[in-house]
Amino acid sequence: MAENLRIGIPSKGRLSEISTELLADAGLSFRRQERSLFARVRDMPIDVTFLRTDDIPVLCAEGAIDLGITGSDLVNESGAVVSTRLKLGVGKCRLALCVPDDSGVKRPADLDGKRVATSFPQITTGFLAGHKATPHIVNLSGSVEVMIALGVADAIVDLVETGSTLAANRLHVLAELGSYETVLVQNPATPHGHVADRVARRLEGVVIARAWSLLEYNVPEAKLAEAEQITPGFNSPTINRLEQSGWFAVRAMVKRGEVIDIMERLEQLGATAILETAISNCRL
Ligand code: AMP
Q: How far, in Å, is the centroid of ligand 1 from the Cα of 9?
């Protein structure tokens, strides 16, 4: 067995930087020499390996790496037997079956015998089989969205994030095949389980810290119960009595995307001194 745990991260592309930042925020920092395959993590028995994002699920299942950061879409498509330890809260997208706006294809079943371009042949074939359709799959590694204009396909199955690529190519979503995001995967038989647990816990702290803020405010006793309903916290809010009689100080974790709305609601309720603080790391 290798002496150190090996974690595989994408060597290039959008996930490469995201993975490096996540690991650094979790206290796992390393310096990558140009073009080298490995880097040693400072102060931990961990080596980082730089790999193609779509090879990471299979290399993890085969034991070449103990942990990996990749897309759950690629895990699904590969069929690799790995455990998903953690959703990393980034890279969220949907896999969608898309047709031209003027297409005669109205339902997935209409694609029987038609040409479907995709980088996800397994998921696509499985999905369409469920609709009793057997398409001709045009298996491509990228730029799938232009294949209808090129006359290569009648429909595509591709990842959609904002939908702007679809709109630019005059395509629309006929059906969704799944929702995916960036994940931490683990070889189920890794001999480095203890270190893998530490990495997963550290990354979890960062993922939660990025998704939540700490909100503090003062509220009169008569409104305390209502305020607690607005900010129930991660588990439970902290409540302290203020020196000023009839007033309480509340501290609660709040989802970052909801902070502005919640601050408004608390203010309308009569809360004062409402402060948001970013959390940079946590253990819950
Ligand atoms: P959008 O125009 O925002 O819908 O993005 C669609 C384009 O970005 C397509 O070419 C997708 O293949 C690619 N894309 C979107 N989300 C992801 C993701 N999470 N991972 C990899 N590629 C993605």
A: 19
The number of domains in the chain is: 3
To test the ligand 1 pocket, which listed residue (93, 156, 183) has its Cβ within 8 A of the most ligand atoms? 93
Rounded distance from Cα 53 to ligand 1 centre (Å): 14
Do both 12 and 85 map to the same domain? yes
Residues 150 and 187 in one domain: no
Q: What secondary structure does DSSP assign to the chain, as a single string?
A: --SSEEEEEESSSHHHHHHHHHHHHTT----PPTT-SEEEPTTSSEEEEEE-GGGHHHHHHTTS-SEEEEEHHHHHHHT---EEEEE-S-S-EEEEEEEETT-S--SGGGGTTSEEEES-HHHHHHHHHTTT---EEEE-SS-GGGTTTTTS-SEEEEEESSSHHHHHTTEEEEEEEEEE-EEEEE-TT-TTHHHHHHHHHHHHHHHHHHHEEEEEEEEEGGGHHHHHHH---SS--EEEE-SSTTEEEEEEEEEGGGHHHHHHHHHHHT-EEEEEEE------
Pocket of ligand 1 (CB under 6 A): 71, 91, 93, 145, 158-165
pLDDT tens readout for residues 23-53? 999 999 999 888 889 999 999 999 999 999 9
Closest ligand 1 atom to 164 CA:
2
CATH number of the CATH domain containing 36: 3.40.190.10
Domain span including residue 55: 5-91+181-191
Q: Could you tell me the distance, in angstroms and rounded to a whole number, from the CA of residue 62 to the centre of ligand 1?
A: 28
pTM score: 0.92
Residue 239 resides in a domain: yes
Mean model confidence pLDDT for the chain: 96
Ligand 1 atom showing the smallest separation from residue 91 Cα: 19
